[in-house]
Design a protein that fits this description.
Layout lengths: L5 E11 L9 E12 L4 E5 L6 H9 L6 E6 L2 E2 H7 L4 E4 L3 H4 L6 H11 L7 H8 L16 H13 L5 E5 L7 H14 L4 E5 L3 H7 L2 E6 L2 E7 H6 L4 H8 L6 H6 L30 H5 L5 E4 L2 E3 L9
Parallel strand pairs: 3-8, 3-9, 6-7, 7-8
Antiparallel strand pairs: 1-2, 1-4, 4-5, 9-10, 10-12, 11-12
Helix pairs in contact: 4-6, 6-7
Length: 315
């Protein structure tokens, strides 16, 4: 079997909770997550805020260490692989203003990773600016002189400057205006195939356009994973169904005919997650088995994975 570029094996992560009586308590953020990405693929990771998506991205990049489990790139532990392949992993963060040194010009921002790896930047910078749709005249401007969309494009240019094989987009467009989001998405579609990337977001309508596969997270666990079309057209987990029903529909007739699935209750606290299936407190199909037994994340059909005791009941 061909070794995938990225493999996440049974990764769990928790953080200590500070203050008061909870000093020694740890808050679980990820629990037994498994994920693989093949070379040249793109996977979108969605879920509500606080589900552990960004934490998983940091673990994959080696910025943090898991409590248990491991992350492998081409069969090698991430910290070993990243040393053997400098500049081959990159990230674009949500907060682009904090990602850019205000003392650097656009050219200096893009040049920095190239200088660190001692790569020639003379021809690369104009080419990178053109690739992300920015005029060369911006190269001498500072971050505060750019719009949000322009600055995020600079961050993307810097992230792809070393021609990485794997890149994480962590909520990279969520803070941008809708029109600017569309421009950045067009750029990501152009980059698709040139690199392998994980696109973290909470908007399924965005993720479905730029990802080959989509994973859905709930309270730190993957609940469904499938090819993009398969997940949208034939989702089998009740949580995924509710997210899909919330996607806006342009056609008013279709919109009136579609039925919105409204979940009851709030997302439980990660400090005290429900027993058994974590989604059971908001699931219309939950029963005693769901409270007593954690559902297995299993392959239901070829390439389509889900974790639910009542997949046969979901309609």
């Amino acid at each position: 079997r061909e070794t995938p570029l990225l493999e996440v094996r049974n990764v769990s992560k928790s953080y200590p909770v500070s203050g008061g009586f909870w000093r020694k308590k740890r808050q679980p953020v990820l629990r037994d997550v498994n994920l693989t990405l093949s070379e040249g693929s793109s996977v979108g990771l969605i879920g509500e805020s606080g589900e552990g998506k960004s934490t998983l991205g940091r673990l994959i990049l080696g910025l943090e260490q898991p409590d248990s489990g491991q992350v492998f790139l081409e069969g090698r532990p991430v910290h070993v692989w990243s040393k053997e392949h400098p500049g081959q992993m990159s990230v674009v963060f949500q907060d682009y203003t904090s990602s850019a040194n205000p003392r650097f010009t656009v050219e200096e921002l893009i040049r920095e990773p190239l200088d660190i790896l001692r790569l020639d930047a003379s021809c690369a910078i104009p080419e990178l600016l053109e690739r992300v749709g920015l005029p060369k005249a911006l190269r001498n401007l500072y971050p505060h002189e750019l719009s949000g969309g322009q600055l995020q494009r600079v961050c993307i240019a810097r992230a792809i400057a070393t021609r990485p094989r794997f890149i994480v987009f962590d909520e990279a467009i969520s803070s941008l205006d809708v029109s600017v989001q569309a421009q950045v998405l067009d750029l990501l579609l152009e980059l698709k195939g040139d690199m392998t990337y994980l696109f973290i977001a909470h908007d399924l309508s965005v993720v479905k356009h730029i990802s080959n596969r989509i994973g859905v997270m709930y309270l730190g666990k993957l609940v469904e994973l499938a090819d993009s079309y398969e997940l949208i057209a034939h989702s089998i987990h009740p949580y995924t169904r509710s997210l899909i029903s919330a996607i806006p529909v342009a056609d008013p007739i279709t919109a009136r005919q579609s039925k919105r699935i409204v979940l009851q209750g709030d997302v439980p606290s990660p400090l005290n997650p429900p027993s058994g299936c974590r989604f059971r407190t908001r699931c219309p199909y939950a029963d005693e088995r769901c409270a007593a037994e954690v559902p297995e994340f299993k392959e239901v059909t070829s390439g389509h994975w889900a974790a639910c005791h009542h997949l046969d009941k979901v309609k």
